[in-house]
Specification:
The protein is an alpha+beta fold and 116 residues long. It contains 3 helices and 7 strands; from the N terminus they run H-E-E-H-E-E-E-E-E-H. Helix content is 25%, strand content 27%. A 7-stranded antiparallel β-sheet has the order 2-1-4-5-6-7-3, covered by helices on one side. The termini are far apart.
Length: 116
């Protein structure tokens, strides 16, 4: 029983807890922010939940991070930016304020439906 509790605590510590009322999606411009007009702004609860759940379910990857430019920068409530790398089935995410940590987000099917 203690082992299960320890595992649950470790997993909770590795996954970000993310909430938002609005998602703005930008074409990637910089690892240190975002600029210009968003490609799309989502305020629908279902769409926002798709993004926040995908990011919250991310698993932190260990080791040094050396990545190519991401596909998108997603900004939650105008202040909390995440960079996203997406392919047909899986994806990765990185918080703009922590460019040394990468999260594997698994299935991206739910969020790709909202992207242009």
């Amino acid at each position: 029983m203690r082992l299960l509790l320890v595992i649950a605590l470790l997993l909770a510590a590795c996954s970000p807890d993310i909430h938002a009322d609005q998602i703005a999606v930008y074409s990637f411009t910089s690892f240190h922010g975002w600029g210009g007009d968003p490609v799309i702004v989502l305020e629908d609860e279902e769409a926002v939940n798709a993004f926040t759940e995908t990011l919250s379910e991310g698993s932190r990857l260990s080791g040094a991070v050396d990545v190519v430019e991401p596909d998108w920068t997603v900004v939650l409530d105008g202040k909390d930016a995440w960079h996203l790398w997406l392919d047909d089935e899986n994806g990765s995410a990185m918080h703009a304020d922590d460019t040394h940590t990468l999260y594997e987000v698994g299935s991206t099917e739910d969020i790709q439906a909202y992207l242009p």
